[in-house]
Each structure stands twice: as C-alpha cells, then as structure tokens.
Amino acid sequence: MANYEFGAGIWMFQQFIDRYATDAYGPEVDTIKAIEKAAEVGDIRVLDINYPFAGDGVTVAEVREALKRTGIRAQAITPHLYMREFQLGSFTHPDPKIRQKAIDLGTKAIEIAHELDARYVKFWPGQDGFDYPFQVDYQRLWDNSVEGIRSVAQSDPSMQFAIEYKAKEPRSHMFFNSSARTLLAIEDMGVDNVGIVFDLGHSFFAKETPAEAVQLVARRGKLVSIELNDNWREWDDDMAVGTVHLIETLEFLAALRTIQWQGPLLLDQFPFRENSVEAARSSILTIRALERVLDRLDLNALAAAQGRHDALAAQRVVLDLLLGTGLVKDHD
Amino acid sequence: MANYEFGAGIWMFQQFIDRYATDAYGPEVDTIKAIEKAAEVGDIRVLDINYPFAGDGVTVAEVREALKRTGIRAQAITPHLYMREFQLGSFTHPDPKIRQKAIDLGTKAIEIAHELDARYVKFWPGQDGFDYPFQVDYQRLWDNSVEGIRSVAQSDPSMQFAIEYKAKEPRSHMFFNSSARTLLAIEDMGVDNVGIVFDLGHSFFAKETPAEAVQLVARRGKLVSIELNDNWREWDDDMAVGTVHLIETLEFLAALRTIQWQGPLLLDQFPFRENSVEAARSSILTIRALERVLDRLDLNALAAAQGRHDALAAQRVVLDLLLGTGLVKDHD
Amino acid sequence: MANYEFGAGIWMFQQFIDRYATDAYGPEVDTIKAIEKAAEVGDIRVLDINYPFAGDGVTVAEVREALKRTGIRAQAITPHLYMREFQLGSFTHPDPKIRQKAIDLGTKAIEIAHELDARYVKFWPGQDGFDYPFQVDYQRLWDNSVEGIRSVAQSDPSMQFAIEYKAKEPRSHMFFNSSARTLLAIEDMGVDNVGIVFDLGHSFFAKETPAEAVQLVARRGKLVSIELNDNWREWDDDMAVGTVHLIETLEFLAALRTIQWQGPLLLDQFPFRENSVEAARSSILTIRALERVLDRLDLNALAAAQGRHDALAAQRVVLDLLLGTGLVKDHD
Amino acid sequence: MANYEFGAGIWMFQQFIDRYATDAYGPEVDTIKAIEKAAEVGDIRVLDINYPFAGDGVTVAEVREALKRTGIRAQAITPHLYMREFQLGSFTHPDPKIRQKAIDLGTKAIEIAHELDARYVKFWPGQDGFDYPFQVDYQRLWDNSVEGIRSVAQSDPSMQFAIEYKAKEPRSHMFFNSSARTLLAIEDMGVDNVGIVFDLGHSFFAKETPAEAVQLVARRGKLVSIELNDNWREWDDDMAVGTVHLIETLEFLAALRTIQWQGPLLLDQFPFRENSVEAARSSILTIRALERVLDRLDLNALAAAQGRHDALAAQRVVLDLLLGTGLVKDHD
Q: Where is the Xylose isomerase-like TIM barrel domain (chains A, B, C, D) (predicted)?
C-alpha cells in the first residue's frame, strides 16, 4: 500500500461564498484558524497556503507558529492572483502596471515560501483568459502568460514553481486549460523550475483521462504536485474524492503507482454545505480504501488484458475487486 | 418590427462576487442606486427586483419613489431564497422550519409585489436540489418542491407566480432544471397561477432548443416572462445577448413572433468585468438589430423550406439576411 | 436480492457498422443466429426483437421456433423506423406518404408482437428530429410525433406501446429526448397504452439523474421497460453496465427497488470490438454483484442521512459497501 | 478579400452509412463518380482522396484521368486506417502484425500521393485510442502512436504528413484528441515532415477556441492544412460551415488572415440527408460572404478594443458588421 502523506489546500477550511449566497455559506475563518481546522482532520500533514493570508494583520510569524504548533508543514504558497484588481487578468492583464503587480505578488510569494519552508509556489491565474469571442489577441495572451511566469521563475532559480490548469471559472475560458497546453507553454518559458500541479478534478473537468494525462506530465518531468477531489465533469465542483468517478479515481491512483509518485496527496475541496473537517476525512478514508483495493489488484491479469486491449477482461479484474464477491472470478 | 419594451433583472446593476474574487468585482450597490443605473441605460422600462432589498434599511417606500422618479415599473419581485440559511434548500430544506421560512418569504414577496404593482412573483429556488449521488430522497424532493410553491400560490390567487428553471449552480443539480420537468411539476401543483420565466440562457444551458422549448411552454399557457442573455452552453455565463449564439438567438426571436409574445424582454446578465449600463445597451442594440433582420425575413421561403425539412434552403434564407450581401440569393 | 430476469435487445448479437468502418466490425448475423447467440449467454430470458427481421426471407414462424427452441421469450418488437426511407423522419416525415408508411410499419409490428406473444411494441423514432437551426417547424414536429404514435396506439388498445427517448443520434436533435418531455408528449396523445422504455444509458446521456428520472416516470404510471448499459455521458456509447458510472448505476438499482420494479432488465449494448456474449455476461455479473451490494445496504442509515440531506454520511454508507473494508464504518 | 481556393474531402460526395440506417443514406458512389460530383460544385479545386479507392477495381490511372478531366488536383491522400481489421487500432493495435499493416498502408499512401501529385498524406487514426477505463496501457499507446507515424514519415522525407486530431468517434477516446496533445506527440516523433490538419469542427468538438488553437499550431510551424465545417460542439456533426457557430467561424477566418494562410480551404462535411453538391455550395457561399464581412472589419477599432480586453467594444465592432445596420455604430 502506498502510504501517502495527506495534505490540503487551506481554502477548504475557510469561508465559502458564491454569486448567489452573498452572505456566504458560513462564518469567516482566518489563516490561523484554518490551520487549526486542518489539524483537526488528524491526517493532514501539509498545506497549500494562500497569500495574502486571510484575516486582519495575520503575520508570517503567526502562521509559522501555527504550523509548528499543529505539526503541519507548508507545502506550497499560492498567491491570490484572482482578486478584484486582477479581474481582467494577472500576467495577461492589458495594463502593464497590473501585470507588474502580478509579478510582484509572485515574487512576494517566493519570499513567503522561503520563510515557511514551502516546497513550491503555485500559480493559478484564474482571471487570465477571456469571456467573449473577439475579446483578446490570443497570441499576446500566450506571450504575456509565458513571459509573466518566466519572469517570476527566473527571479529565483532555487524555488520550484507549478501551474495549476483549469478549463474555466472564473473566466469562461482560462488560459492554462489542459495538461498538454500547459506543457507547451512551459516549454516556451525555457526555464527548468516550472512544472504542473495536477488536480484530478480539473483533469476530469478538462475531459481528459486523468490516469493518462498524469503520466504524460510525469514522463516530461513536469509533475510537481497532486491534488484530489471529484466533480460531475462539467464544472469544478470540488467534491469529496471518489464520490462520482470511483473507477477512474481508482485508475488514477493506479497510475500514481506506475509513475512511482511518493506523495503527498493534497485535497482540493469546496465543501460549501458540508463540515470541512468531515469532508477531508471522508476523502482520506476513500483514498486509503482504494489503495487497499489496489493492493489486491492482480497486476498480471490486468497487464495481460491490456496487452490485448481487452476491455471486458480488464474491467472484470477491476469490478471484481470493487464488488468484492469473487463472483466475477468464478465465471472466468 | 416587434417593438418590445425592455427590462432587466436589477441584479445586473449591483455588485458581483464569486468564490475567487471574494473582494468582489466592484463596489456595493444598493437597490435605489441600482434602479438609477438601470435608468441610465435609457431603454429599461421594467425591473425584476430582489427582496429583501440591497442596502441597509432601504424601504418599500423608497423603492417605489425611485421607480416613480426614474419612470421604471416593477415587473417582478424575486425573493432571495438562496442565501446562507437556505443553503440546503428553500422549499425542499430538510428542516420543516426552514421550509416554512421559505414559504413566509414567498408570502412577504407577494406583499411587496402588491405594494410595488409588480406583475408576478418569481421563484428561483437555486439551493433546491442536491450535489452528491445518494444525498436525497428524490420523491420527497419533488413533493416538497411542489407543495411549497403550491402553498405560496394558493395564499394569493390574484397574484401570478413564475418559476425560473436552471440546470445547476449553485447546486450541482437543481430541482427545476428544464422546461419540460418544470411543466410537469406545475401540473402537480394543481393551481392556475404558476407559470414559467423562460430564460434564454438557461435554455441554452439545459441543452434545449430555445425556439422549440418556448413554444412548448407557451402552448400550455404557462409562459409568464422572457429573460435574455447568452452563454457558452455549459454554464450560466449570463453574457450579453447574441454574442455567442447569434443564429439561435435570431431563431428564438422568430419563435417569439410565432407565439405573438407582446413583451417585455428582460435582460439577465452578470457583467462581472464590464460596465453594466453598457452591457445592457449592447444587448438591446443587438436585439433591435435582430428584430430588423426578422422584419426582412422571407417567411414564405422559410416556411417552404421547413415544409420539406430542407436544412440548406432554410439556412440560406437566414444566412443571406445576416451576411447581408445578396450573394446567397443570386445563387438559388 | 431482487432476482431479476435478464433480457437484451437482439441487436447486441448482430452486426455493427458505423460511418468509418463501412466494412462493419464483424460478419452479418441474421435474426435466428442472433437468438442463438443470445441463448449462449445463459441468462438471457427475453429479447427485444427488431422488425423487419435481419436476414433474407426469415419468417415469423422461424423466429417463433428459434425462440421456443432456445427457451427465450419475445419481450418487445421494435420496428425499424430509422432506415434509409425514414432518414428525414418517420412519424414526422415532411411527406405524409412516408408518415403513413411509419404508421403502417407500426401496425405491422403490432401483428408481429401478437404472433410472438411480445409484451409491447417499442418506438424508437431515431430519425424524428432535426439537425440544423431553422430546419423545421417545431410545433408541427410535436404534433406529428404525437399524432403518429397515437394513431398506432389507438389501432390496438390491447397492445402496450413504449417510447424510448434519446437526446441525439442519428439526428443531432431527436424529438423524444428526455423523460420529462416524453411524458408531456404522451399526455398529449391522450391514450392509456403508451408508456416509456427507460434506458439507463440514455438517461445518463440526457444528463438526467437516472435514479430520479425513473421514479418520475414510474409515479406517473408510464414505466413499461428498463434497459441497462453505460456510457461516458456525452454519447450513447452502449457499453457494459457499471463500467463508468458504478455509483450511479448502484443508485439506479436502488431506485428500482424503491419503485418495486419486478423486471426484467434488458441489456442494450453495442459491443463493437468485444465478444457480444461475453459483453452480456459481464453486465449480468456486474448487476448481480451490485444487487448483492444492495442487499447489504443499511437502509436506515441511508434514510437517516437523506433525511438530513447529509451528503457525506450518505456517501459513506455507500462507499463502505463498495470498498468493502469496514474501514469507513470504524471511523464513524 | 482572401480569395481562397476551395477543396473538399472526397468522402462528402460518397455514400453515408451509420449504425442505424444500415441500408445507408443513399446509393454507393465510387471514387471516380465522387470526383465528378465534386466537380459539379463548381468551386472545388482540390480533393483529399481516400485510399484504397471506393469501387471495385478503380485504378490510380483512372483516378488521375478523372482529376485531369475535371480540372481538380489531389491535395492529400488519406489511407483507410479505420476499417474492420484496424478496429482495435492501427499504429497502436495490440498485435504487431496489424501495426505493421498500418505502416504498410501508410507507405502505400505515400506512393499514391506521389503518383497523384498530392501535397501531403493525412493520418486520421480513428481507431487508435480506447473505450473503457483500464482498457489500455497509456504509455504504450503514446509510444506506439509516435513510433508508427515516425516510421512512415522517416520512410520518405520528401513527403509531407499531417495528423488530423479528433476527440472521439469511432473510439470513445481517440489518441490524437486535441491540438496541444498532437503537437506534443509530433515533438516526440523528432521528424520535420509531420504536421497537423486543423479541422474547424474538430476544434469546436474538442472545446478549443479555434481562432486561438490554429495560431498555436501555426506559430510552431506545424499547420499543414485547414478543413472547415460546423457542429453542435458535442459531436463531429460535419455540418455546413457557419450554420451554428457563425461568430466563431468569422473569428476563425480572421485568425487565418492573421497567420496569412494562403489556402486552400477544404470542406469536411457529412451531408447525410442533404444533397452533397448543394451542401458544398452552401458552405462556400457562406465562407465567401464571411470574407466580405472581414473585408469591412475595422481592424483598428478591433485592435483597440482587444488592447483593453474590452469585450463589449470588440463585440460591437463584429455585430455591427453581421447585423449590417449601422445602428450599433451610431450609438457609440
């Protein structure tokens, strides 16, 4: 059993709001309190932490102290590149002054990452993209995306950076929208310290085959981190792991074994209407149970079936495990 | 030319927020100020107004005065059935006390509608539905939806009510999700004063053919109101009219002529990154231009093509008008 | 355990072709041979049989004999309303002579159904619909669909009829495209002997929640038959049961218990690249295994969770069963 | 006005069949007759021709003669890599003997291309991919795809090759499924003579922004050919150009000007229920009309709007042209 360490995006323990429930789904939660809630889960060892921190006057020292107190490590720092001032874009904003602000915020995130011993700085440029046909010059959008991230990455070759792609939301079309396109853009950056955060739900949402796409990224040496969740494949619903796409989640975990991923696995959920601590526990329980299922997987039988592209045989190997009856095996 | 009166949902002139830009896309706008912005558009004659009003202590009298001052009429009152307390549902909330609160808010909306001379009370029960497989008892969800709205509708037979369906958001699955399903639920209510607000964008989003679906609703005598906007068909993007689905928007406007819709046409947009007044003006300009196109439509040629299900001939009639060159006609 | 009888659409044992592999995925198989292949599965007790039969000169007597010999019953007769001559529609064809041909073929199917003791005649009017915007007059499409089927149904009140809806293919827009819309059209027919064949894959494809939609149909007394398969939710892939949507298939089978469906369950698969007999066996093994899972389902725990709309608790009840470890339960 | 030369895939003048209308939508048409039908269109100058040819005993000499007689040039040769024997894959078939057959057919296509003076050999490996989770080893699928095409390409460095990507059909998941992924695979081939056929409909279907994606391909020097058609974005409907996505088709044609595409433009339609010659004429009329619209496009106004990412201003520039009234301009 791959005994993965678990982590989470800190946002899953904070306040959720959307365009309808403008009074939010629950009370405000500052970064310190969110770290404490993460610790409540019991299995969260690392966090992806947003910067600027949530809460008035919360300092780096306080965050470091909260992490130390709870035994949690900072895994990543994710700058808020998608707030009001970046609504038309961060690295691709039409105004060069705002583009510079995005770069400055990226640079600031590096500083925080060093102070908190985080492993990487994550870019999720949620406002970079467009909403309407004819709205932007696509070549300039590409160039600005590449140049902006390159600029931050070159400023600190000792830091690892990672881009998290998503098809859309909040823009109707986001710039970094698939694994393959992000790999091409990273090529164009021409730097060695930029890779990809592979978010399982975003891969479902991009209509990728996650078990395939993660191997594509890994083979090119660009896999920096893994985030897990689930959705209905038409939106970034950020649900608990395995609750809709159980079989493909299992296949994804099998792929992580193939590429010998050592972890950690970070949860990226938005439990709008659920208890965040319980939502994290549910996902971890599911992942561990799926890992036990994989421990029992007959790899030879599966390889033999895949060697023939034999869909029914491959499926039987898997469904027999999930349905746990031996009934399937008896038949063959 | 159908000389429609125009209107809008008042929300398009207020503040937008989403789960990422939690500092919102612009400043707060109270109901009074939103009415004034609507008036700035120049062609907005009616408004769908949310209740409770936005802004501290805004009173019905103040709203009535603002309407009078700007020459705008209240077309509809839409109660906020989708705020924090209704996050698990309004008419379908598991707690009967919250269900009663939803009914009470509906009843209050009737009162406001009478005070502002609004033509109907609109229900958009955005939180009624579910997010996960196995989460709810579907029969109870149906029954509670039907009973809740019936209860409000029966409390005032003199008032018109209308349900606005949408496939999803904020729930991953909303209860009233298509025109046909909403018609069935209305049947089950067994009251005469509940109909449908047909939102063009929601119909696109539900993967309906809007020109077909609006006729289905109208033939059953349940069409109460029309809202217009556009989207990319996979989310309720609430964009300016005709910017993506120009041909189907034209077809929809043609269908409104077929059913002899007298108007008004309400805009339902969320111009997150645009000027709201300009966003409304753009849509109105487009609709009026499309109406002029329809004025020139060769109805006999179109009917002849449709009589043969002749797609190419029907398309040529339409594309010739849009591309405005006469080139197409010369060919035939 | 619901000890369902199993059946299949006979087409799954015949030849498959598509627009690319125009030399077909395998050899021709006539109706007699297809019945024999169905019998090979070992658990197929009933068949939905296309008329006209496949193969030169195959007679009703021969089919009856083959059924008798194999111990299989005819469950339904499905007339080929979607061949070349009906390419612009069957009941909705622009030419009234072709519409009459569709009615005549429906009438002939009744006769065959009586001769083979089939329980119902199924309509799958795959060519009724449209492909292009502006191509058809939607009201006439609706009326012709309703009138055509009503006409066949009225011709034999002793026979049961059932419509199988599908969103699209071969038309880009099929007329009977969802459960709710089909229920409305059936209402308009004003006859008692027309209901719905609920195809699980078509419900996925229509972006319905199958466990919800089947209850909607059943509560209105219109559920005639159940067909099972799976797909990727964006096309009618006709795959083996439970291979993609395992959790929702389980939820669907649970819903069949709720409505006390007595069976049979028919498979509707197109195993283009697989052995048809094995493809059927795989599905039956999966369904039986899922039924055993349901036998162990803690209905009280699930009802309690659903009573609170508690997604995480409901999911844990289910995932604990599928992942079979007890790990989940220990946690609570 | 870009005075493009037009062409077509020869298949659009041949017989169509699908899995339901197994008696086909019309009579058989051999390659010679298809060339003659293409010539009937009046504006078709080049053809993408499938090999093996359709029709018993049709020879290269006969095809060359028919081309000469009609004044049409062979633009591309597309080998039938997706017939029955390749149903589990061509370059990725599990059996190395079939993989070799695919390579041999590719080599044969080169020979035909030379004999007919075609500019490139097109690969559309429609059966390379998978249908079920767990069915294949994704890394092997990638390697086999890359190696197979590299092998053919290396066999004749003087010939140009081009891959046409598509998301799915006939496989539920095709290997070459997007522009970005195909670019990555071409990189891995390490040869200079393999590029991309950019099919507008496939780009819509892949949920790309075609005007963006074609520039991505062109900037990397991999754009070999352009095919046009339209669809409903959820399937490869192969409809007449501009009939659904008029605005995005206009944006795509504008992008072709940006990259200074010199043509030709090939039509790739499957007019199942329409006259093929008329279907081609409709598309050409539409494209020419859109080109005239582009001639009138105020490039400075558009560039200014795009320089600000000003969606409404950019849209007004475009809608004013399409709605042809000047009304929009008067407003500004």
A: 59-284
Dig out the tokens for D133 from the structure.
Answer: 């989770």
Residue A208 CB partners (closer than 8 Å, separation 6+): A178, A179
Predicted-complex ipTM score: 0.96
Split at pLDDT 50, 70, 90, the class of D332 is: very low
Phi, psi of A149 (to 5 degrees): -70, -40
CB A295 within 8 A of CB A252: no
Interchain proximity A323–C273, CB inside 8 Å: no
Determine which helix (DSSP H) or strand (DSSP E) holds C180, and give its type and residue range.
Answer: helix C179-189
- Tell me where in chain B the CATH 3.20.20.150 domain(s) lie: 6-295
Q: Where are the beta strands (DSSP E) in C88-239?
A: 120-123, 129-130, 160-164, 173-174, 194-199, 223-228
| Cβ-based neighbour number of residue C295 at 10 Å | 11
Spatial distance between the Cα atoms of B32 and B37, rounded to a whole number of angstroms = 9
- pLDDT tens string D56-81: 999 999 999 999 999 999 999 999 99
- Tell me the average pLDDT across A94-112: 98
Residue B299 CB neighbour total at 10 angstroms: 11
Against chain A, the chains showing at least 3 CB pairs within 8 Å are: B, C, D
Q: What is the mean pLDDT of residues B98-103?
A: 98
Distance CA A239, CA C145 (A): 41
CB atoms within 10 A of CB C1: 9
| Sequential DSSP letters for B52-74 | SPSSTT--HHHHHHHHHHHT-EE
Q: Which two tokens stand for residue A209?
A: 């085959």
Please tell me the distance from the alpha carbon of residue A242 to that of residue A283, in angstroms, as a whole number.
7
Cα(C203)–Cα(C197) distance, rounded to whole angstroms?
Answer: 11
Q: What is the pLDDT of residues A21-72, one digit of tens each?
A: 999 999 999 999 999 999 999 999 999 999 999 999 999 999 999 999 999 9
Q: What is the pLDDT of residue B3?
A: 87
Rounded Cα distance between A79 and A162, Å, is 12
Asked if C251 contacts D66 with a C-beta cutoff of 8 angstroms, the reply is: no
Q: Which residues of C touch D82 (CB under 8 A)?
A: 20-21
CA B250 to CA B294: how far, in whole Å?
A: 8
> Model confidence at A234, in pLDDT bands (50, 70, 90)?
very high
End-to-end CA distance of chain C: give it in Å, rounded: 27
**Residue B72 pLDDT greater than 60, yes or no:** yes
First to last CA, chain D: 27
Pairing of the two strands B6-9 and C73-79: unpaired
Q: Is the dihedral of CA D131, D133, D135, D138 positive or negative?
A: positive
Reduce the DSSP state of residue D121 to 3 states and report it. strand
- At residue C330, the pLDDT reads 43
Point out the residue among A25, A132, A232 whose CB comes nearest to the CB of B84: A25
Chain length of chain D: 332
Q: Kindly state whether B82 is in contact with chain A, defined as any CB-CB distance less than 8 angstroms.
A: yes
Q: Outline where chain C has alpha helix (H).
A: 31-41, 60-70, 96-115, 138-154, 179-189, 200-205, 210-219, 246-258, 276-295, 299-307, 311-323, 327-331
- Supply the pLDDT for residue D326: 59
Contact D172 C273 (CB under 8 A): no
Choose the closest CB to C211 out of B138, B140, B167.
B138
What superfamily in CATH does domain B6-295 come from? Divalent-metal-dependent TIM barrel enzymes (3.20.20.150)
pLDDT for D3 equals: 87
Chains that touch C (3 or more CB pairs under 8 A): A, B, D
Give pLDDT tens digits for D304-313: 999 999 999 9
Mean pLDDT of chain A: 96
Tell me the per-residue pLDDT of B234-291, one tens digit each, with 9 for 90 and over. Answer: 999 999 999 999 999 999 999 999 999 998 999 999 999 999 999 999 999 999 999 9
Q: Quick one: CATH architecture of C6-275?
A: Alpha-Beta Barrel (3.20)
For residue B329, pLDDT over 70 is answered with no
